[in-house]
Amino acid sequence: MIDKIILFIPWALALLMFGLWLRSERIRRMQKIKLTELIGKDPLTGLSSRRHFLDIAAREINRSQRFSNPLSALIIDVDDLRNLNKTYGQIGGDLALQHIAQACRQSVRDFDLIARFSGEEIALLLPDTPLDGAIVVAERIRRKAEEKRIMMPDGLEFAMTVCIGVAQTQTEMDSTEDLLLAADTALQKAMTTGPNKVMY
């Protein structure tokens, strides 16, 4: 009996140590998520959070009105993300969003703002950029999104496309809500006529 207990002790200690390690990993992960939220970052994509985006957008609207500079916004939606999630699981959907985030980073200037705006949408704010310049950026992102295939951890690959709505402030009275509503309206048109479309 004592021999069995002695043999069991190392296994019990190993299980206990594994349990403690797992718990500390969970705590560390939760702390990382809370920290990224506090500094205005989305934990999945590393992009700005919606709240941070809206704070900066309000300031940029005021600045563009004060100096009569153009200000444009883009809203991007992954085509058929629900089907991607169904086919490739949540990992596939997460990789698709990370892929779009990277395509956006590679397509804009350092002072442009990119944010995870909702579960499926990414928004961009382009200061000192008129509508035609914003359309060029949107097309660049759209092409980058479709050109590179996404690799799953198991080696399976898939392609994806996006629809993008583009808008520019129209009057000195425009608010952040007006600009984003115009970009969202353009996005809805792109999704209706899409996939893989840029509309303004």
TrEMBL record:
EC identifiers of the protein: 2.7.7.65
GO terms of biological process kind: cell adhesion involved in single-species biofilm formation; negative regulation of bacterial-type flagellum-dependent cell motility
UniProt superkingdom: Bacteria
Entries under Pfam families matching the protein: GGDEF
Residues in GGDEF domain copies: 69-200
GO molecular function, one term: diguanylate cyclase activity
Membrane-crossing segments per the record: 6-22
Key words of the record: Membrane, Nucleotidyltransferase, Transferase, Transmembrane, Transmembrane helix
InterPro entries, A to Z: Diguanylate_Cyclase, GGDEF_dom, Nucleotide_cyclase, Rev_trsase/Diguanyl_cyclase
An example Gene Ontology CC term for this record: plasma membrane
Catalyzed reactions per annotation: 2 GTP = 3',3'-c-di-GMP + 2 diphosphate
Gene that encodes the chain: dosC_3
Protein name as it appears in the record: diguanylate cyclase
NCBIfam families: GGDEF
SMART domains the UniProt entry points to: GGDEF
